[in-house]
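From the pipeline queue, job 12 of 40. The input is one protein chain; the requested action is below.

Action: predict structure.
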Amino acid sequence: MINIDTRRETNFAVTLTPSNFGENTYIARVPRKTVTTDQILDLVAAHNKGIDRYQVEHAMELLKKEILEQAELGFSVDIMEICKLYIAPLRSVKSLTPEAERVTGFEARFSVNDRLRERLRGVTAAVTAVVDSAPQISLIENPVAEEGEDKGILKATFSAKVTGRKLKVGGEAGGIFFVPVDGENAPSLNEQEWVKVPNDFITHNTDRLLEFHLPRTLAVGRKYLVAVRVAERYGTKLKAPVTGMSRIPVMVAEATAV
């Protein structure tokens, strides 16, 4: 349950996520916070001194009962000039004798009242955060490391596991890359030096987990950053590929003989 400022001074903020389909364009989202019926009643009592909170609660229960009953009868119900509640079938009806059908399965829908729509258009909000749409790598490890071994050291010709967010690789330009670093762990800007993981080496490909065999061309004893590049999401090609890169390099070590 969230705290409510009875002085009505509580402000809210939105988050911005870069749009992959428009340059310098962001998708704004309002974090969802729910105000309960009890909190609404507390606010009514706080802003209307002397009112009987329990009488208001009883009246709300009576209103709710009538609203639900009218909706079940198929009426569109105007709820306090804020929105209209109406019901609609869940699916289409296929029938050779439609006049003999009995339609079952309905859902609730709402349409916003024009007065509320106009009122909300004048609302302003601060930006609380800008969410990066690029893949975010949180951990790289050697899944076959034995107890006591450093999981941050990858064994050549073995496999690796990457966890994070928005990792799923898609599109021709997308992929998993090993980026060589210099003595200060700065990544090479020359993408010709990057080593790409062959697509058929990737054994697990989801938003939160990538598992893959290491490319045979990785240099033993060298440090790399791991980059994940996505050119397609949910079957739609992005306007420009987005790339996320790990912050801590991993070392490729020679595989031990079994």
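Job complete. The two ends are 57 Å apart (CA to CA).
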